[in-house]
Specification:
mainly alpha, Four Helix Bundle (Hemerythrin (Met), subunit A), 0% strand, disordered N terminus
Length: 233
């Protein structure tokens, strides 16, 4: 029975990984079938390379981090509210490239000029670099909000955590903001606004949880004042 459960989880994780790493970033191309859409290729390649390289580097430093992230939704101590927010964020992460693909399919005309797209690409790369840096620096960077007593969780204040308390979310925000402008989509801006609101809400709840349950976090928060955006919040 246990072996069957492990095989089921492994198969499900493989399917989810393929869907997340390959299908989602390629949605604009798959929806439009415009194989000469260079912006969509740039988006897909940056997404895939950023995802793989970031996790490869993190796994080299923390061999157990990928196992933690892969099984995080199965953990019994995951905060109930976060299980809902993870699903919501995943949905918006799927909708943004899908909506962009549909808009370009229907419209077909460029909306933003090259300078804006170059800036969006730089934001996209910066988001993946910051997110990967946070993943590499923090052995306890799980896929869900939980206090990892089983892994001896403690406060991490190195790397990007010297400047902000949730740099992984800050990196995700940069990726969110960049996507509609790189992919020529006004409609996708709406999904980005919604996903950003969920991200900010999740950041607030996670920060409150860490204040209440993780030893030393209050002192760390006194030193590092900003949660997501240095100088603002």
């Amino acid at each position: 029975m246990m072996e069957q459960k492990k095989m089921h989880l492994s198969f499900r994780m493989i399917v989810l990984m393929v869907f997340s790493i390959i299908i989602v970033p390629c949605l604009p191309l798959l929806i439009t079938r415009r194989w000469d859409w260079w912006e969509a290729w740039v988006y897909a390649i940056t997404y895939i390379v950023g995802f793989i390289v970031g996790r490869w580097l993190a796994a080299r430093k923390h061999p157990d981090i990928l196992a933690e992230r892969a099984s995080s939704l199965e953990k019994e101590d995951t905060k109930p509210w976060d299980k809902k927010l993870v699903v919501l964020m995943s949905l918006f992460g799927l909708l943004t490239p899908a909506v962009a693909g549909v808009e370009v399919l229907l419209n077909g005309q460029p909306i933003f000029g090259l300078p804006i797209k170059v800036a969006a690409f730089l934001f996209l790369v910066a988001g993946y670099v910051l997110g990967s840096y946070a993943l590499i620096a923090n052995r306890f960077f799980s896929g869900v909000v939980r206090i990892q007593t089983d892994r001896g969780q403690h406060v991490v204040d190195s790397g990007p955590y010297r400047w902000m308390r949730h740099p992984g979310y800050a990196g995700a925000m940069l990726v969110y903001i960049a996507t509609p402008f790189l992919l020529d989509s006004w409609w996708a801006i709406l999904t980005v606004v919604l996903s950003s609101a969920v991200l900010v809400y999740r950041t607030s709840l996670e920060d409150k949880t860490l204040h209440e349950e993780l030893e030393g976090y209050r002192e760390y928060a006194d030193r590092v004042c900003y949660r997501l955006v240095p100088g603002i919040w």
